[in-house]
Write a structure and sequence with these properties.
The chain has two domains: 140 residues, Rossmann fold; 103 residues, Rossmann fold (3-Layer(aba) Sandwich), CATH 3.40.50.620. The longest helix has 34 residues. Helix 2 links the parallel strand 3 and strand 4. Strands 1-9-8-7-10-11-6-5-2-3-4 form an eleven-stranded mixed sheet, sandwiched between helices. It is globular and about 70 Å long. The chain is α/β, with parallel strands linked by helices.
Length: 290
């Protein structure tokens, strides 16, 4: 593991000229919603963003064979319950906003989260979600992947357990010069420009006698006024995903920036991969783009 000297200067009073102006946060009945709302409200206040809380109402799960027997009465009962739950979640979102001194716009969307949330994410700069966990983990993973591949916008994922402050003390950027990592870095620029420290980490870099791994992208960041250092790590037997999370812990990083799914989802599901490992084992907020 090696670390290069810090490059560039950071102006503590500077704000990026183009930042996060519209932020979406997913609101549902999961236990993570309270922590997610608190984080999103603090994030919106910090960056002066307009925050939209999207409350998703999944359709009732009725097997097609008995739909006719159930009839419209069941559908109406479900809709009444859904409306009551949504009203409670909307009030929870408003309360989180009041705690931070901001107003939160609340939208109620009926339909599968991976479909309805996707539309709202395309009209925002960033969408805040939680790591998949619990009995609905497969559904949550489907929503995460739908937004990652289909929104054309970055997602910010919070670990399922714990509460987290708005990142900016020390941000770790996973860099392998791929399209996905370049996209994630560009999407994270409003955060990187305000961070006290940024480390560009190259995991298992290819040998290059005349170049320091990550030096070129670090120079690019320094030209944007980012206070940045480069570092390398070698995964060995533990895998790149663990190497990234271990390095984040060593540095005391408060956010990881990385490209998502450089390989296909099928390949990562079968053989493993950094994206899948981080999604399953994240220990800090992760900004991810594809």
């Amino acid at each position: 593991m090696a670390t290069a000297s810090i490059l560039g200067k950071a102006d503590s009073n500077a704000r990026p000229s183009a930042g996060f102006r519209d932020v979406v946060v997913h609101v549902d009945e999961s236990p993570q919603t309270a922590a997610r709302l608190a984080f999103a409200a603090a994030f919106a206040r910090e960056y002066g963003a307009h925050l939209v809380a999207v409350v998703t109402q999944g359709p009732p799960e009725i097997p097609p064979g008995i739909r006719a027997e159930v009839g419209n009465s069941f559908i109406e009962l479900w809709r009444e319950r859904a409306q009551a739950v949504s009203a409670g979640l909307a009030e929870q979102a408003a309360k989180a906003g009041r705690a931070e001194g901001i107003d939160i716009e609340c939208r109620i969307a009926e339909g599968l989260p991976e479909e309805t949330l996707l539309v709202h994410a395309r009209h925002a700069d960033l969408t805040i979600l939680s790591q998949a966990s619990g009995p609905d983990a497969s559904d949550q993973t489907r929503t995460i992947e739908a937004l990652l591949f289909g929104a054309g916008r970055p997602i910010l994922l919070l670990p399922a357990a714990g509460r987290y402050a708005v990142p900016g003390r020390h941000i770790l950027v996973a860099w392998n010069a791929s399209r996905e990592s370049a996209r994630a870095l560009a999407d994270a620029m409003p955060l990187l420009g305000c961070a006290k420290h940024v480390t560009v980490l190259s995991a298992d870099p290819k040998a290059a006698a005349s170049r320091v791994p990550g030096a070129d992208i670090a120079l690019h960041l320094a030209r944007h006024g980012v206070k940045v250092a480069t570092s390398t790590t070698y995964a060995g037997d533990i895998g790149v995903g663990d190497a990234l999370l271990n390095r984040a812990t060593d540095l005391g990083a408060d956010m990881l920036v990385m490209g998502g799914y450089g390989h296909s989802r099928t390949r990562e599901a079968i053989f493993g991969g950094a994206t899948r490992h981080v999604l399953d084992h994240m220990t800090l907020p992760v900004l991810m783009s594809h």
